[in-house]
Amino acid sequence: MTNSDSSILTVVGMLGLSLLSAACIINTADDGDDGGIATDSGNPPATSGTPPGGATTSVDDTGDGTTGGGPGPEACEDGENLLSDPGFEMGTPSDAWAEASLAFDTPICDASCTEEEGASAYAGDWWVWFGGLDDGAEEASVEQIVSVPAGTTAQLSFWFQIRSGAGTGEDVFTVELIDEAAKISDTIWMVTDFDMPDFEGQYTRVDLDISEWADGGTYTLRFASEITGNGLTSFFLDEVRLVSCGGEGTDTGVETEGVDTTAVSESGTDSGTSSGGSSDSGGSSSSGGSSSTGD
Fold first, then answer.
1. How far apart are CA 64 and CA 68, in angstroms?
2. Rounded distance between C-alpha atoms, residue 166 and residue 232, angstroms
3. C-alpha to C-alpha distance for 18 and 31, rounded to whole angstroms
């Protein structure tokens, strides 16, 4: 064998060792070492509520009554609330809100509706309780006629909680604006009992940019629910605010006026007897209540 032949064998041998080392490294990485590369779990971020129409939405779950800079114009800090009895403190029957319920006289509720710990208004004594039946279908609503000055920006905000959810995705809560002249209804926000993880445990403020409807026309603002009765679902609503202001809107960080900034905390397991989230006139418990079995 010549020196040149020996040199060729040496180079081939070194090349083979290099390839073997590389294969070992690859196999080691395949055996569970990701090599420091970040991986995507494939789970998309959770969303809170659906604005089906032209409205944009942001959800504040800090419990401090301010928005966190969500999309769309924000309401003026000192803007006047265009709604009558926004916290439902007139009780029932209400002179401000038209009330409807298939299972009860009204969905407007106070402490007489239930002995369940933690089931209460966000602020004051009264709130709206949609659902609350262990079985049996229920449809309920509260509504009020509104008009937003033309050429302004407008924001609708309210405090919302899903106290319990059947887990079927079939129980629905909607916010609608109904054009009284054209008799056209626009659903501007919607959630189902599937959205409970985003709204359980405490009230959460929802902000909706409804500037598209700021045209001086007459609309019915309607909060409604359809409950199938295939399990217990409870939607809570309180402290509604509709404000408009001129120009392009203002900065974020708007404080909700007249609202207790202490969020309602959930005890974890519901107990006691629910009246289905409604009371008759005078605030006494409605018949046909249901037992709340927990979230």
1. 10
2. 5
3. 20
Place of tokens 């395949």: 30
CA distances for 149 relative to 145, 204, 234, angstroms: 14, 28, 34
Of 136, 126, 135, 143, which Cα lies nearest the Cα of 102? Answer: 136
Per DSSP, what are the bridge partners of residue 185? 178
What residue spans define the domains of the chain? 56-291
How is domain 56-291 classified at the CATH fold level?
Jelly Rolls (2.60.120)
Alpha-helical regions (H) of the chain: 3-30, 196-199
Give pLDDT tens digits along the chain (295 positions): 444 454 444 443 444 444 444 443 333 334 433 333 333 333 333 335 666 656 666 665 544 433 333 333 444 656 889 999 999 999 999 999 999 999 998 999 999 998 888 899 999 999 999 998 877 899 999 999 999 999 999 999 999 999 999 999 999 999 999 998 888 999 999 999 999 999 998 999 999 999 999 999 999 999 999 998 888 999 999 999 999 987 543 333 333 333 333 333 333 333 333 334 443 433 333 333 333 333 3
From CA 48, how far away is CA 70, in angstroms rounded?
12
| Largest separation between any pair of C-alpha atoms in the chain | 112
Task: Say what the pTM is.
Answer: 0.65
Query: Residue 22: enclosing H or E segment and its boundaries?
Result: helix 3-30
Nearest C-alpha neighbor of 291 from the set 249, 207, 234 = 234
